[in-house]
Structure formats: C-alpha cells, structure tokens
Design brief:
The complex is a heterodimer of chains A (464) and B (444).
Chain A (H helix, E strand, L loop, with lengths): L1 H9 L4 E17 L2 E19 L2 E7 L4 H19 L16 E5 L11 H16 L5 E19 L4 E19 L2 E10 L4 H7 L2 H16 L7 E7 L1 H12 L5 H5 L19 E4 L23 E6 L2 E2 L6 H7 L7 E2 L8 E2 L3 E4 L6 H6 L3 E14 L4 E13 L2 E6 L3 E5 H6 L3 E2 L4 E2 L6 E2 L3 E2 L2 E4 L2 E8 L4
Parallel strand pairs in A: 4-6, 8-15, 14-23
Antiparallel strand pairs in A: 1-2, 1-5, 2-3, 5-6, 6-7, 8-24, 9-10, 9-14, 10-11, 12-13, 15-16, 16-17, 16-18, 18-24, 19-24, 20-23, 21-22
Helix pairs in contact in A: 3-5
Chain B lengths: L2 H17 L4 E17 L2 E19 L2 E7 L5 H14 L30 H18 L3 E19 L4 E19 L2 E2 L3 E7 L8 H13 L4 E2 L3 E7 L1 H7 L1 H7 L1 H5 L20 E4 L20 E6 L2 E2 L6 H7 L7 E2 L7 E2 L4 E3 L6 H6 L3 E12 L5 E13 L2 E7 L1 E6 H7 L2 E9 L2 E15 L1
C-alpha cells in the first residue's frame, strides 16, 4: 500500500496528502451481570487532502485501488477548486517541518492480539461482579473494555512517507448506589498507549472497581456544599482537565484565530510563575499516556510544546498552515480520527510540569477549603477560558486535614484566573484522562495530567 | 451503491453469518453520501465529500449475541465470522431476541429526488450565505465555526425472521457558532441549528441572524445577582438541562435499576401542563424514519401526558424483558449494536407567549444556553448560565455573566410554572421555553 501511495504521489500535480488507515476495534460492556456488548469493527479507507490555489479540499473513499485513489484525489481537488473563488484567506504556504519517514510502532512486549477475547471478556465479567458484590447499596454496575488498533500510512508530495502502528486499550467501571430513592454514582477508568499488560499494570482493575464502589456508597451520606469562592487542592485528573479543556482548546491556533481570549497574549503573564504547561506527542514524566503519537496526520514528527513557561504564554498549538501564518515551526498537532476525517489541530498529552511541594504540605497549609478529585459527569469550557466542570469526588479540608466527603460539587471560573491563583505545585505526577475521547467535530484519543496543585476557584453548590 | 445493491449485500452477509454458525441473525446496512462545506474564522473552510457503505452484523447463537461491522465489503465474511466468534464467547441472555417482523409504512417526504443533483458548489453557496448573513448583523460578530451538510442515506435491514425494510432519505443540516468581540471583551459562544429534508426549504439565514443576535446580547454582560427563584430556560438551555429525562425514559435503564421512574408508570412525574412525546414519523423531522434500527415501524409515542408517565422507550430486548409492546426505539448506526434512543423528542408547547411569561416574573433569570452538569440519575444540575439576562418587574433588565444555576430537574418538573407556546427545533429535539421555580442562582 505504501509503495502504491508513493507512486501515485510521485505522479501527482500540486500538493497532495494521502492517508490510508486500517482500524480494528473491540468493545466489551457488561452491565449488572448482563453482557451488553461484544463487538468488533474493521474499517479501512483513504483520506485525501489537496491544496489548489491556496484552498484545501478533502475527499474520502473506501476504494483503495489505484483508480479509486485517483478518483478521490480528483474529488478533493474539485472540492478545493469550487471554493477557490469565495475563499478570502488563502493558505499562504505550509510551514517547513521535519517530515516523518519510516516505520513507527508502539513499544510493547504484550500486544493486544496475543490475548484472546475470552480473556478480555473474563476480566470485564469479573469486574462487574466485583462491583455488585462490593456493597449492599449497589443498585447497578458497569464494566467495559475497549481497544483501538490503528495502522496508518501517510504520504505527501513534500516528503512524508510514514507507516505508523498504534494500540490504545482502556478499562472503565461505574458503580451506582441507592438508598431511599436517592442514587449516586462512582466511576473509575484507565487507558494507555501500549499493550495488555501495560493497561493492567498502570492501575489494578480490582482497585478501580473497589474505588468506584466506595465513592458511590460514601456519597449517599454526603451533604451538598454551599457555593462560593474557596481554596482548593486539585488532583492530577482535574489539573489535566483544566489544562486540556479550559486552557488547551484556547491555544489551538485555529480556535485562537476564531477569536479566543489568548489571541494577543503571547509573551504576556497568564498564570502564576509556578505554572509551566505543555502539550507533547511523547509521554513525559510517566509512561503510557494515551495521547502519545510519534507522527501527526500531516506526516510531521511531533514534539514537546511549551505553552506556558513559568507563567508566560509562549506558544499556540499548530498545524502546518497556522504555523506558516504565525511564522513559527509546526508543533505536530494536526490529527484526524478516522480516514474520513481531515486533519485538524488537536491536543496530545497536555499537562502541568511537577513542582516542589509534597502533597501533605499542599493540604496542611489550608485552613478551610476542598480537596477535589477527577472530572464528574461532564465539563465544558468556552474560548474565553470560562469553564464549568463537575467534580467526581470532593472532600472538605478543615485545619490542614482532608475531611468529610461532599457531593454534587461543580467548579467554575476563568481558567487563566485560576492558574494565576496557583500558590503551590505538587512534586508528584500522573496521567489521569486516558479513557474516553475528546470531541471537536471529530474524536481524538488524548491524555492530560500533572501534579497536585493548590489554587482558588468557585465552588457551585446550592443556594439555601 | 444503490438501494438494490445494498439489499443484495445485506442478504449476502445474512447468508454468511448463518453459514458460520449463527442460529438467527440481523444485518443492517447504510450507505451514506455526504457533502459538507464548512466555515471557520469568518471564512470559508474546507469542503469535503464522502461516501461509505457500512454493514453491521448481529449474530445469535442460542441466546448469545455477537456483533461486528465493516466498511470493507471484501471483508464481509471476516465480519460474519467475528460476529459468530464473539457470540460464542459471550454469556447468553434470554432477552436476546429478534423482533417479530411487522409491516413498515413508508413516511412521506423522507427523500427529495432533487438532492441527487445537489453539488459541492451548491453546498459552498449555502455556507457562504450562512457566513455572510451572520456577519451582516454587526461588525463585532465573529463566525467561529459552522457548516452546511447535504446527506443522502440508504438504510436496509434484513433478518433471519424474514424482516426486510429499506428507505432512502435526504437531509440538509446547518449550524453556526458565533462570538462577538469588542476590544478585550469576548461574548459567550452562541449556537444555532437548522435542518430540512428538501432542497426548496433550505434557509440558513434565520439561524445565522439568531446566532449573531445571541452573541451580541451577551457582550458587555456584568456580574448578576444571587437569589433563589425563577429561571426561564430557552430551548437550547432546556435541552442541556433536560437530558436526564431521556436517561430515565430509556427502558434499558429501567431494567438496570438506574431509573428513578422504574415503579411510576401511570403516576404523576411532572406538573399537569407538561407533555412529552417522541414521534419517529414527524413530518420533516431530523430523526424521522419509517423503521428503527431493528426494523420496527416508528410511531408517535406519548411518554409523559399531562404530567403522568405513560411509557418508556423500548427496543426488542427490553420489550421482551418487560413483556410489553415494542415502541420502535432501537437506535444506532450500522457500526454499533441496536441501543435505545429517542427519535424526534418533543415537549409540547404551552399556551402562554414567552413575552407574557417574562412579564409575569418579578425577579428572575432568562438563560439562553447552559454549560454544566445535569446528572442523569439524581437529576441534580449545576452550571453556568450562558447568554443570561436578569429579569426585573416583568422586563429584561440587563445581560449578566458568570452566573451559576443549580437545582434538580425532577423537582423542577413538578413545580414548573410556565411553558411557552413558541418552540424551537434543536437537532432532533423540539422544545418550548420553560419557567422553573426555586432554582439557586449564584453570581460570581
């Protein structure tokens, strides 16, 4: 296939990007003892991007024979030509980049295909059962396993010819507890870029199940907090969500050009000097991060991008088009989820670098506040960095000690204001957001994390 | 691929999966042809064309089920084999059944034959109209994102119980997300959506103007007030807040013990003015189709009538488990197992004009969009009121920002004090504006 695409690109006129993708996925879901899903998917196809008169066009096809590929190229070029008259801002050029050649494979000793479906199913059934037998109050349980294995071939007229293999499995557990008509939920998940033993090694599946049960049950007797501004200690999960959802999207160069709050802030202080925030194609500080990718979908070798350096905004996240617009080097953030998606600017592994403060000291200095762990049911943020996240697990901090659990907590504010309020950054690190998908018109496997940190933000509670 | 060819391929897959050892089987095939022209950052963005045929195979071995799908028709046999292998590895479940075949009546107006000749150039033209109309409202408006999509979809369902259904449908959808920027002040994002099934009815201008007006309205918003009281939710906000209703009405969640309404059929769950129907045959509806993901005819299903819970949404699995009629709510694509989901989910309008609802409010908050959490199980919601306006003495006083609202959807349903007679179509939802009581409003 790579030879065919190289041959076609060699004979093409104008700039062309061909991306073949074969994807195999498996999903197993068990709810309250019943198998809800056991499914497999085999997808294959080709996405073509053409640049004609400074305008992109895109077409996708499942016909990957030579005539099929040529027809898709013609369709993409026609789509570009049709838009050319009305397009105001032309692509002035594509920034020079280290284009990838060769083969790139996920390093694992234990590939997913070496493990049978029976083994994967047995694990999911066992987790579901463990949740149900975990406490009397458990009303329902869910356990699921998913895996995505990708093979991509990216060939462009300007030098990329990369063959990329990827493997991303994940586990998820949900416990619902009930008492007197009241219901609460606990959930945990883990995901990796890697193989079967990497997934099981990063978090013991039984511990995920036990934690979900504990949280669901404990919340039944938890009170709702009052709303207001408070000192909080965020765990690596919420730090990651803040980095990705509330900051990261506002520095994606396409969002910046659409009028994000960051557009004129490069070089300005946007956070506490304790904060260095990055997005990387590699898995920094801790292994197996799910957003890991060696080559982006424009065929550019990825790198570690420092977005905020000691409080100062240093860089946006770019594809080759926006990098040329800003006169900077591409950061390797162009990604497409499946063959029928065109590459757009997406994050990879987004995090705050660890600092110097031990976790105990983050907590012990708080007279009154909250210790907050992981994203709850949902989260949203705007291009002005205003965010609102549900919190999965919230404890009061009283006189320097983590105390009682409270429920129904949301946090909100402006993410940059929150980062300015950071007064201590933990010396630990974890990736915590590898399960699930990020959506931006198309999906992406990303990860986010960081150390624990202390800051101020608004707690949403109930007005009484 | 024509409907005829798709039907042949689905029949072929059905033969293959039975050859590999399935006792019963179902094959759902979809051919989707789409043309999309996108706008971004005040400019035309990329135009795309796509064609894909996807086949989903559900294999039954006794009461065991496995599912596989592919878009590579050369791999139909691999997919059939996978489906049977997965079934054999899986524990059985007595409710894994195929539905009895039933007569499917076509829905009028599903397909506009002129959609066949709708070109990339036509889509680009509509995208330009969307962009230019939004920008023409005010120079401070920035069109962040949006697109115009033309889609023609063939659906075919066959199963070993003798079901055979097919349908061709055209659909044009368009949406736009704008912000307004004045110096350093950036408004909230404002989203509007529109759709039609015919070329002649395509009209992108109202949504473009509406989105711009919403963005401009929230510009210059200042800190609001904290109180506990009335909140008037516009349809987009109501949609975000009322998603827990779908969760509670899903019969699968009832079966799982996750629905608080599991023992309340025939009982009051909302104030008497509140009625909710799901109508899979709604003329022109985005989710309209003559049959569901399992080949069962769609129908108009009253879910809540005058405040009383009348029905849950069922597919073949839950109908069998509860021993009740199948409501035709099997949902999903050829890429996934049949799940349960709404079609055209509609809160019936009230009799009061929205302006009159406002004029009856002494102090309240009008919310255009909600960004937050609505817990599907507890119904607790909490989040930021976007494009929100303080109402005082029956009049809109001013735009406010950074205002949190919190309460409980199920409590709110029982104390609902107003439903507007105006409704808006948002995706496959038709919602009026709703006036909620006793909501916590917190100004940051």
């Amino acid at each position: 296939m790579q030879k065919l695409l190289e041959k076609i690109v060699g004979g093409a006129s104008g700039w062309i990007e061909l991306r073949y993708q074969a994807r195999s996925t498996k999903r197993i879901t068990v709810r309250s003892g019943n198998l809800e899903e056991s499914s497999s998917t085999l997808l294959a196809g080709l996405g073509v991007r053409a640049l004609v008169d400074g305008v992109f066009g895109f077409a996708s096809t499942t016909d990957v024979s030579e005539p099929g590929v040529l027809a898709a190229i013609a369709a993409a070029q026609s789509a570009a030509r049709t838009s050319a008259n009305a397009k105001r801002k032309r692509v002035k050029g594509l920034a020079e980049a280290p284009m990838a050649t060769g083969t790139f494979t996920v390093a694992t000793d234990d590939p997913l295909d070496a493990h049978s479906l029976d083994e994967k199913l047995a694990l999911v059934l066992q987790l579901d059962k463990r949740i149900r037998s975990g406490a009397q109050e458990i009303a329902s349980s869910t356990a699921s396993y998913g895996e995505i294995q990708d093979e991509k071939i990216i060939v462009t007229t300007d030098g990329a010819s990369a063959h990329v293999f990827d493997s991303k499995p994940e586990l998820r557990v949900i416990a619902v507890a009930g008492r007197n008509g009241d219901q609460t939920m606990g959930m945990e998940s883990s995901g990796v870029t890697g193989g079967w033993s990497d997934l099981l090694g990063i978090a013991a599946p039984e511990e995920l199940a036990d934690k979900a049960v504990q949280l669901a049950v404990d919340q039944l007797s938890a009170a709702h907090p009052a709303g207001g501004t408070s000192t909080v200690v965020l765990d690596p999960g919420l730090v990651g969500i803040l980095c990705h959802e509330a900051i990261g999207h506002t520095v994606e160069a396409d969002i910046v050009l659409g009028g994000a709050i960051t557009s004129n802030k490069i070089g300005q202080i946007v956070a506490s000097e304790l904060v260095t925030l990055c997005d990387s194609g590699a898995t920094e500080y801790s292994p197996y991060a799910v957003g890991t990718l060696p080559v982006d979908d424009e065929g550019v070798l990825t790198q570690r991008t420092v977005i905020i350096e000691k409080g100062t905004l240093r860089s946006f996240l770019h594809n080759r088009e926006t990098a040329a617009h800003y006169g900077v080097a591409p950061t390797g953030n162009a990604r497409a989820y499946v063959y029928s998606d065109d590459p757009i600017i997406r994050m990879r592994n987004t995090y705050i670098e660890p600092g110097a403060t031990p976790f105990e000291e983050l907590i012990s200095a708080v007279k009154e506040g909250y210790y907050l762990r992981e994203l709850g049911m949902s989260g949203q943020a705007d291009s002005n960095a205003e965010f609102m996240f549900g919190v999965r697990e919230a404890h009061r901090i009283v006189d320097g000690k983590v105390g009682e659990l409270v429920r129904g907590v949301t946090i909100s504010g402006n993410a940059f204001e929150v980062l300015k309020s950071v007064d201590a950054v933990g010396n630990d690190f974890a990736w915590e957001n590898g399960a699930g998908l990020c959506g931006k018109g198309q999906a992406a496997k990303v990860d986010a994390g960081g150390p624990h940190l202390r800051c101020m933000l608004t707690i949403g509670g109930r007005q009484t | 691929m024509s409907t005829h060819n798709l039907l042949d391929r689905c029949q072929q897959a059905l033969d293959l999966v039975r050859k590999h050892g399935a006792d019963q089987a179902e094959v759902f095939g979809q051919t989707t042809r789409t043309i999309t022209s996108a706008v971004e950052k005040d400019d035309l963005q990329i135009s795309k064309s796509q064609q894909e045929t996807r086949i989903g195979i559900r294999a039954f071995v006794g009461t065991q089920v496995g599912f596989a799908s592919t878009n590579d028709l050369a791999k139909l046999e691999d997919a059939a084999f996978d489906a049977v292998t997965l079934a054999k590895a899986s524990p059985g479940d007595p409710h894994n059944v195929l539905p009895e075949p039933s007569e499917v009546e076509p829905v009028d107006g599903m397909n506009d034959p002129s959609a066949e000749s709708f070109s990339t150039a036509d889509a680009v033209h509509q995208a330009i109209r969307l962009l230019e109309t939004a920008k023409s409202v005010d120079s401070r408006v920035i069109v962040g994102e949006g697109d115009f999509t033309a889609e023609i979809r063939d659906r075919v369902l066959v199963n070993s119980a003798g079901a055979e259904a097919s349908e061709l449908g055209s659909l044009f959808t368009y949406w736009v997300l704008t912000t307004a920027r004045d110096g350093d002040a950036v408004s909230n994002m404002a989203l509007k959506f529109g759709a039609t099934r015919t070329v002649a009815e395509i009209d992108v201008e109202p949504i473009a103007r509406g989105s711009s007006a919403d963005a401009l309205g929230s510009l210059g918003a200042e800190k609001g007030e904290s109180f506990k009281g009335q909140v008037l939710l516009d349809p987009y906000a109501a949609l975000s807040l009322f998603t827990p209703l779908q969760f509670q009405l899903n019969a699968r969640n009832v079966l799982r013990g996750m629905s608080r309404w599991k023992d309340t059929l025939g009982e009051s769950v909302a104030m008497t003015g509140f009625s909710l129907v799901d109508d899979g045959r709604l003329p022109g509806g985005v989710a309209t189709a003559s049959f569901d993901r399992e080949g069962i005819p769609h129908q108009r299903v009253p879910l809540i009538e005058a405040g009383t819970l009348r029905s849950f949404m069922h597919n073949a699995y839950t109908a069998h488990a509860f021993g009740v009629g199948n409501t035709g709510h099997a949902a999903g694509s050829a890429g996934s197992l049949p799940a349960i989901g709404p079609t055209n989910f509609t809160i019936l309008p009230g009799e009061t004009a929205k302006d009159d609802l406002i004029s009856e409010m002494k102090r309240g908050l009008l919310v255009s969009r909600f960004s937050g959490n609505a817990d599907p199980i507890s119904g607790d919601f909490s989040g930021v009121a976007k494009a929100a306006y303080l109402i005082k003495d029956g009049k809109i006083d001013r735009a406010v920002s950074g205002t949190l609202i919190a309460g409980n959807v199920f409590e709110a349903l029982k104390t609902l004090s107003g439903i507007s007679r105006e409704t808006e179509n948002v995706f496959n939802y038709t919602f009026p504006s709703l006036c909620l009581e006793e909501i916590s409003v917190t100004a940051e």
